[in-house]
Amino acid sequence: MADTSRRRRANGEASRAKILDAATEIASERGYEGTSINLVSKRCGLPASSIYWHFADKDDLIAAVIERSFGRWLSAWSVPDDGTPRDRVAEMTMQVAKALLESPDFLRLGLMLALERRPVEPRAREMYLQVRAQAQIQLREAAMDMSPDLDAAALDQLATYAMAGADGLFIAKEIGGDSVDLPALFDLHGRMVIDAALRLAESTRDEDS
Amino acid sequence: MADTSRRRRANGEASRAKILDAATEIASERGYEGTSINLVSKRCGLPASSIYWHFADKDDLIAAVIERSFGRWLSAWSVPDDGTPRDRVAEMTMQVAKALLESPDFLRLGLMLALERRPVEPRAREMYLQVRAQAQIQLREAAMDMSPDLDAAALDQLATYAMAGADGLFIAKEIGGDSVDLPALFDLHGRMVIDAALRLAESTRDEDS
DNA sequence: AACGATCTGTAGTGATCACTACGGTAAGTC
DNA sequence: GACTTACCGTAGTGATCACTACAGATCGTT
């Protein structure tokens, strides 16, 4: 049963992957509106009817692109669980920087969708925002682990600042190309976030005393 | 002569402004591809032929939107020229934060265009990248004023980091809405950039000794 | 061999795209 | 009043949009 279904769908799965590959390329070049089914069809060599057999509509296709890109991006790094806080932050920022260099499609397309504010929100955008919110929560928890005496507002600020830096540096790399040393900048950013944590912890203690 | 030309074009100038208003709204909602001439025409109440009388083509229209938005954004803030470096940075970040809150169209549309990498680059995107490069140079010069002993690479890194923070925080505000306190985050970022300057200056001196 | 499920190929649908041809109108110039 | 300039309105152009109807093709199952 498992064997037959694998064989049955072997061709289909390959086609699905080809379609997603093409759609990923085009969407991260031209955004949501710029990704036409015709273009995707031409680039992957399959007719439009095949695309619509695998995906309900254009929105579903782009959402699937986001989902797959995010999965790949996630699997490219992991949260370290030992060492000093400084070491762990340094290790994590390095991994995120590397993951962004190796599979930038996820964040590029995600940011393009996030910046758009169309009247009817496509599911693709919703999906990215959901993923992003999840990441924000994890960042907040990591911050709480490292400096437990911060209050809720400070933790939010810290997580937001950390993610904003990552977004901004990614954009700098996308625009600046090879002239931007992403790992070095991420390293700097990691240290800045730790400093910010210390600074915020200080002002929290000042308010308490 | 000047009077007549003013009177002659009075109606036209108003129409041009109405077209730009509508195009700005739509473009910052839906991006380049999502901005259709038909939609702009409906929103500004003028027929497509009027749009094409005022602008050569869609690309020219969007480029004009960028240009006007940038002008408005620029006029919303100025570089302070007195006080300690810390004060000047704090003042500047505050003004930039306020300008971004009041006229976010420029950066939102600009970032959307910058993230796209279409085969044939529209002039609108080129124009934004040019404006951005100019800002980067000014940031670099400001950094050089404040810590003259930094080497070229460190200055580039600092300017890139400062701009990346601004971009990232702007995005956080766009996505997070009212739950994001942009001035507070910009204030934090300003202090972080100063700390980064000190840190980079230190490592420069270490290398020299 | 017969059959149903999975996928592809052909050939469209009406809607919307960027853009234009062209006549009309109002105002300024002479 | 004749003429030019500046701008708007009507009504299109062919191309491309997302999407679909439907007839094969290929396959494992029976």
From TrEMBL, chains A, B:
<keyword id="KW-0805">Transcription regulation</keyword>
<keyword id="KW-0238">DNA-binding</keyword>
<dbReference type="InterPro" id="IPR009057">
    <property type="entry name" value="Homeodomain-like_sf"/>
</dbReference>
<dbReference type="InterPro" id="IPR001647">
    <property type="entry name" value="HTH_TetR"/>
</dbReference>
<keyword id="KW-0804">Transcription</keyword>
<feature type="DNA-binding region" description="H-T-H motif">
    <location>
        <begin position="36"/>
        <end position="55"/>
    </location>
</feature>
<dbReference type="InterPro" id="IPR036271">
    <property type="entry name" value="Tet_transcr_reg_TetR-rel_C_sf"/>
</dbReference>
<protein>
    <submittedName>
        <fullName>Helix-turn-helix domain-containing protein</fullName>
    </submittedName>
</protein>
<dbReference type="Pfam" id="PF00440">
    <property type="entry name" value="TetR_N"/>
</dbReference>
<dbReference type="InterPro" id="IPR050109">
    <property type="entry name" value="HTH-type_TetR-like_transc_reg"/>
</dbReference>
<feature type="domain" description="HTH tetR-type">
    <location>
        <begin position="13"/>
        <end position="73"/>
    </location>
</feature>
